Protein 1
Amino acid sequence: MSTRKAIKGLEERLKDGESIIVAEGYLFEFERRGYLQAGAFVPEIVLEHPQIVRQLYEEFVHAGSDVVLAFTYYAHRQKLKLIGREDDLEKLNRKALKMAREVADETGTLMAASLSKTMAFIARDSEAIAETKKMFREQVQWAYEEGVDFMVGETLSDLEEAMYALEAIKEFGLPAVITLSSLGDTTRDGHPYSEALKKLEDAGAAAVGLNCIRGPATMLPLMKEIRDVCKGPLCALPVVYRTSPDLPSMQSLTGVGPGGSNIRYFDLPAWQCSRTEIQEFAREARAIGIQYVGLCCGNASHYIREVAETLGRSPPASRYSPDMGARHDPTLLAKQAETSLRKT
């Protein structure tokens, strides 16, 4: 367990009405940098290139993240089985957690770890449910032993599976943030999102909301509906892509080639949000009353800086915020203009 100096925790900050900025999006960013394979999306980078993982932890804090989220997303048995590395499961988790704890201690930020959908869950299947619970519990136990401040259950499609994640987190007495992925009109097990999140809130989650799948333009309208039902702290962490009412998810975005074929993952950068759109997202999230705000797939450090600055912060990266008026020496520009006038 960490012996770091105590700082204000998640629940205390939420109770005091503070905004908490959280950078997610490790999978896509590491794939973009050439350290993770799209498709299986297994976080082998934690063991093979740990310095790159630690660097991104530091970059996100530098840009304004209040939380170092350990890269334990998809670091579970089902994913490690895909590549024949199930024996490395605990080693991978603990490595990701230890690095996150170190960076959080050095920067005075909170440290969290994430649980993702297990790929093992099947409703009404007792063996699958038992395996799901086991997978969640072992990851939470490792996180607890490595000194995590709170846990995140994210990108969960079923309310039932989300409840199992929350149950595992509560067993260890840790604060829980639970976010659902909103691909359709309801959770995969048929619950409206506002209803599902209210159930999770009532079951003891410190904050609830949505992450991934939807971009800002299609997540925020749904968050307004959720705000009307859920009375506690809310979370919103969209993907950084231009979704729309006609194309509400990143999975639904289509290309511009013959037949408008679905591009899925490969060409998603063609739909990247602008920095201005991310600023607008942060402003609207604040207006709705969303306290736990961040970005998911497609995120990068400059986007998190936009969120932080829009919410009134000045993270270290603000020293390098764009100032296009500083491209030239104003005195030199004046002399050049004077010379041009003389020539005419």
Protein 2
Amino acid sequence: MLHTFRIFICSPQNTKNPISYNTPAESLFHTSLVNSPFVTQNPNEAHLFFVLFPSDFSTRSIARLVRDLRMELPYWNRTLGADHFYMSCAGIGYESDRNLVELKKNSIQISCFPTPYGKFIPHKDITLPPFNPLPHSLPQAPVNKTATFLGYFRSYGDRGDGESQSSLVNDLSGDPEFVIGSNASDQLTHMVRLASSKFCLFFYAVDVSGIGDALRFGCVPVVITEGPIQDLPFLDVIRWSEIAVFVGTGRGAKELKHVLERTCKDGYERMRGLGMKASQHWVWNESPQPYDAFHTVLFQLWSRRHAIRYARREWV
């Protein structure tokens, strides 16, 4: 991949200003890609085509962009966009316009994690891991650590936690084996709690941006969700069942504690160690490094380059 993978960027001709995005992860991916050797100026060398548009592009503008690609270049029509990819943090829904239908159904979508319900197609789409705000210069947790708490939960009271989360948090707050923090906690306190807890709790519907931090500090993520999660980052790379615990929202504090205690007896240290190794894939660097988030996203794109095969030829 590092030596042969090539991407051609298709950008809107009427965009004079630099492409702008709403999230740091999108901006870092775009900046890293355009400054990388993976980009080619010769479309005949490309394995994939990046349909480039800013976050504030309307669906009508995106449809017009795809229409122009169809009319002005031969590459879209030969696969109906299956060898193209685009980036949209919130994802694109199902629209009636033919151009948007082909973009949504055929092209690879790169969206933010988690992606809104109904805007992610598991067999082809990819999610970006959230940008990690913690300083990367800090060391990881030691391989063999003595945890003070069984579980740690960082509450986001300003994000509409919901009845199920509030009930669970209230039940856990009185248990000395659990520590409940708030979003207002300073970063140092947050890191200490990550490093001193066996498990870190996340509600999928509220906030899962801290999963990468938890993995890095040796705190096994526990994701509380209403159903199966199809948009986890790096599903082609990471065996999530080996590094995280997934439980339903209907479980109460007693049942949750039983699950965690059982996990402690059944290979917890292996799960923790694999998670710490996997945490490198969640790190965004201004200058990309091997196995970081940028390269892992590219690997997922590279693995999809032969989803649709076509005869290579020169186009005039």
Protein 3
Amino acid sequence: MCQSNTLQGPDLHTGKWLQFPQLALRRRLGQLSCMSRPALKLRSWPLTILYYLLPFGALKPLTRVGWRPMSRVALYKSVPTRLLSRAWGRLNQVELPTWLRKPVYSLYIWTFGVNMKEAAVEDLHHYRNLSEFFRRKLKPQARPVCCVHSVISPSDGKILNFGQVKNCEVEQVKGVTYSLESFLGPRISREELRFSQAPPHNSFQQQLVTKEGNELYHCVIYLAPGDYHCFHSPTDWRVSHRRHFPGSLMSVNPGVARWIKELFCHNERVVLTGDWKHGFFSLTAVGATNVGSIRIYFDQDLHTNSPCYSKGSYNDFSFISNNNKEGIPMRKGEHLGEFNLGSTIVLIFEAPKDFKFQLKAGQKIRFGEALGSL
């Protein structure tokens, strides 16, 4: 005998009451689908955070009625990192009372493993604010510069990746690549083109190589918050051009770099290009969360993480003029710039095929130590 599945009596009323929340939620989701993309992102952002944070899949039933959470990557990209970094920069400039300096800096030293014995000034009371502490100078003998190898590390940090550039792609970490042209930007400046002998129809990578038989190499160095925050010239070269890309200020921690493809192309960065004895040479300082301030000592016109710039744009500045035909000469080990916390340095340069890196991926390195040589 067949049994009927029809709800009757109290069961019928219970079923109706169970359907009301679902119907209301469907109607609300239908309203959300009619919203503009910015408004929709604003409305679904808090719900997505709760979806990932609440235990036991508390909000998973929402997916059964048509709602879909933003991906973790999209959620992270929607965080206003530029605004937060500007606020952090303001906080760093606040002068701390003398009695508060030692406990605050001691906590930072303990958390990130800072070696204050290398600092030019070891007395913590000397640093008036966090910004001065982050940008502390080292004792002259703390970082001897290698004279034997042609390219040295421009900073303290961790080697994320290195090697030859292949197929116009560069690895930010093992297995995760980004476009060489997206990272450096198009070659449109006259002073860059004068070095290259490659025909314009060649690939972007081939256009960067100025001498026959040379290859293009790269090296990525991650600066942790506890590292020395200044960076130096990695070799003897001439800086002819600066390109500033305003952008996001997402974390460049290796874990995040594995998570977000082309992270370095999304983030704000300052690209310095020029030439050394073997051809093309570039150093790029990549910004990160709370590191909106990138300073180049010889470039007083550079202002990073400024609200007057828009994402996706870039601006160029040439150091070659009628009065200066050679650009800015830099000696190996010379002070070049600084970050306000920790970030990433990317070197992309041309060298003969017998150039060899003296590195291992993941190793710690200090400013002045050898990267590679012929």
Protein 4
Amino acid sequence: KTLLCQNWDLFAQLMREDPSTIKGAEALMLGEMLTLPQNFGNIFLGETFSSYISVHNDSNQVVKDILVKADLQTSSQRLNLSASNSAVGELKPECCIDDVIHHEVKEIGTHILVCAVSYTTQYGEKLYFRKFFKFQVLKPLDVKTKFYNAETDEVFLEAQIQNITTSAMFMEKVSLEPSMMYNVTELNTVTSGEDGESTFGKMSYLQPMDTRQYLYCLKPKPEYAEKAGVIKGVTVIGKLDIVWKTNLGERGRLQTSQLQRMAPGYGDIRLSLEMIPDTVNLEEPFDIICKITNCSERTMDLVLEMCNTRSIHWCGVSGRQLGKLSPGAFLSLPLILLSSVQGLQSISGLRLTDTFLKRTYEYDDIAQVCVVCPYTNNEC
């Protein structure tokens, strides 16, 4: 055992010194030295289990009606993997029957490959034997997700993917398949467009126990964007599709179950901003456009009040009637205001009153705007 460990350490050193391998990825890249697995005992969820089965006639007699059956026993089911369930007529001495089976592994835990062979001797005696091959299916990746609900109905998904195997893996694809109500944009490239470079660099491999963070933006499709009540209640976002390759090029694939977010609570009325400038001049009026959506199941008759704050001053008539707003409907409301204080200022002071129920909804810290002085420091 000590000799084997020393030889393996020597081989690992040779791999690191091999100029045809990539620094930091010696175990992943083959280079000029083909590294075969040290043993077989584990396979990872999402990979394809392949096995070559050979039944050889070691005797000096011809046997007939040979039936080879390969089953895979998991913790929950027994699967038949044989390519053919028909018997072979005869098998001469020193001849063999070969078969290759494949199965995409979809369960973790202990798996047992059961190979059963039945045949008839030349004297008419029917014989039967079985062989068992046990292996473990392990979890290759640890996936954690976080959701961020934006005011514009956009949903940002952060996916943290960790390699929990003992070898590096090449991340071929990590994509998000959105649900029917959303379009998705991947935010994992430095520049936009098809030629955008990945934020993880050109070598997209993940070392053991390393973690990557992927970011996606989901926007409601146009036909659903205006239906506030529908989007409000949507919890199913989509599922992640992850494809990787191991150091011998074996491909694995995992799809998560449908990812669900906590539906945001907007209350009866939702107020959001459709348009606001990033930077405005001190004591100069600027325009914003507010979007008011009725998220309740009843019609509202709304009145708008605008309350000045220490730095924000509204221009226009306060207490004006906005009219009736039916359930799920919205209206766009242009407003004018100015700031008397420099710096990053919060827009606050809007009040909406439903005259039917005599209920007032207050909206403060709706957004922030940067207020700058257009003159020199002395003039400000």
